[in-house]
Amino acid sequence: MRIKKIILKNIRSYKYQEIEFPKGSILLSGDIGSGKTSILLSIEFALFGLQPGQRGSALLRSGEKEGGVELEMEIDGRDIILKRTLKRGNKTISQESASIIIDGVEQELSITELKNKVLSLLNYPKEFAKKQNTLFRFTVYTPQEEMKQIILQDSETRRNTIRYVFGIDKYKRILENVNILIGKLREERRLKEALVSSSENDFEELKRIESRIQELKVQEVDANKVLEEKKNYRKKVEDEKKLLEDKINEKRKIEQEIEKTKIMLSNKIERTETLQKSILEINKQIEELNSLKFDSALLKEIEMKISVLKKKKEELSEERLRISSEINSLKLKNEENERTKNKISKLEICPTCLQDVDAVYKSNIINKMDSEISQNIEKIKEDTLKIENLLKEERKLDSEILELQSKVDELRLTKVKIENLNEKKALVETYNKEKEMLEKDISLLNEQISLLKSSLLEFQKYDLLFEKKTRELEDAFREEKKQEILLAEIKKEIDMLNKNLEVVQERIKKTEEIKKQISYIVKLEGWFSKSFAPLISNIEKNVMIKLRTEFSKTFEKWFSMLVSDNFNVRLDETFTPIIEQQDYEIDYAYLSGGERTAIALAYRLALNQVINSFLSKIKTKGIVILDEPTDGFSEQQLEKMRDVLAELNSEQLIIVSHEQKIESFVENVIKLKKEDGESNLEN
């Protein structure tokens, strides 16, 4: 892996800055606070995103809503660009988007997807996907102060950190999981042994159930025989009841026939009474009609008078209409004369000869018309009087016609009544005949009722017999039902015992299986505790010994290059640096600042080399980032840094330092400055 370029947008003290990284050694130079460490943090953010516990406010420039980092790098000859952005919300700053460009092809990914993609490209072991970017921190970039903190940790924490970095913590996890598994196996074994002990009485239970089933089967056979006898008895009683029921049905039919006959008798008696009333009423009407007389000549005479009067009325009506028409004609003439008078009185020139009209001439014409109008008015009065007289005569004729018509109606009604007399006599005769027939039917029906009642007496005895047989049948049904219930209870108990038998048999079968499982668990538990766990412990011990040996050797090499005094250094079993001088062990706290920095740097470089050696396929072997590696160094120690950097021989070495002397040790220098709170490259 080699970093080619980084673009910062609103990151910490940077508004916008592009920084290119050449091959070889590079120094990020500048005063304290000029923005050197911001670049290293941005590289880490571009690769892995925000780390657990890291806030976006530590990266996003104060007061800005959005920011981002774009990192261009090369891995195995492939150009890769990583893009990550930050966005300020109402309360927090979060990672907004992420993408990767590989050989010009861009792909939008989630925050987690991009981290996993980067780990894959860097060929980091899969177990580091769920960890923090510890491997990157200890192989590429570790702030010097963090390395000093590792050295100052308690021994157990430091050893666990080393295990974690090298992935050796998996052995510890394996042993912990093995102990958990052994505990689970022992618990499972105890549970299964308890199950086996609780099922010791199953065989006795099995024999008891089988014996009881045999007893119940004998009882079932006997109960079936009794049930069959009770069914046969019940059927016999049922048949006897059926015969009695037929007799009862016959009795009911006779009773129904008696009721029908009584209804018929009642209807005929009622009809006879109705006919008698009708005969009396019609005879009374006949007597009244016999006293009536009808004069046909008188009817014709009155009808002739009515005809003459109607004709006379029509003549009067026609005359009245004629006079009314004449009155209307005279009124129209008067209206026309009035209009003509108005026109002539207003006329000045004759419309025909176009000469002036003389006033005398107009007066003569108007006088003539007035005379004609007066004559017409007199005529209208005479005619109106005639019409009134005619109306009086018409009303008189109407009164006479109405009176005569009333007499005609009376005569005609009398004629109709006389004509209906014969019909009423015939109707009386018909009613008398029907009455005689009904009286005969009534006599016959009374006789039939008497016969039916005598027949009914013969069937009375069957009622008591039927009631008795009904009670016998109910008792038979109850006894049969009891026997069926008894038989069902026997069968139910047999079924229940058979199910219990199956359960016990299944339990015995499972007990045998559990015994086999207990035997297997005992063997498995013994293998894990006596074979597998010691093997893993031995592997971990050998790996840690090998790691500590190589780590201690490399640590001693780097420390001797940085410190000229006669110090002997090594790492103990907890990877704690042990410093001795003239056979006396020196406590880390009593070393000078430069010596403590030398120990931290040597530890850092040794850790880098050993990790790259153990994890030889990771893609970050060619890059090292050192953040203020010479803090507290003397001039002599600074001179020795030249040899250290040459010995590293990294494809790309990035150093952050404000020591100007380091500039002569590296191939490239990137100078940074900060003005008015904004960091930029120094021209």
Brief descriptors of the model:
six-stranded antiparallel sheet; six-stranded mixed sheet; alpha/beta; 12 helices; 683 residues; Helix Hairpins
Structural write-up:
- The protein is of the alpha/beta class.
- Among the domains are: 271 residues, Rossmann fold, CATH 3.40.50; 129 residues, Helix hairpin bin (Helix Hairpins).
- Helix content is 67%, strand content 14%.
- The strands form 3 sheets. The protein has a 6-stranded antiparallel sheet with strand order 2-1-4-5-6-7, covered by helices on one side. A 6-stranded mixed sheet has the order 8-12-13-3-14-15. Strands 9-10-11 form a 3-stranded antiparallel sheet.
Strand order of the largest sheet: 2-1-4-5-6-7
Separation, N- and C-terminal Cα atoms: 28 Å
What string, H for helix and E for strand, traces the elements in order? EEEHEEEEHHEHHHHHHHEEEHEHEEE
Q: Structural class per helix/strand content? A: alpha/beta
Taking pLDDT < 50 over at least 5 consecutive residues as the criterion, the unreliable ranges are: none
User: What's the β-strand tally?
Assistant: 15
User: Could you tell me the strand content as a percent range?
Assistant: 5-15%
Helicity level = 55-70%
Query: What do we call the CATH homologous superfamily of the domain at 2-153 and 563-681?
Result: P-loop containing nucleotide triphosphate hydrolases
| Main beta-sheet annotation | 6 strands, antiparallel
Calculate the mean pLDDT score and round it.
Answer: 85
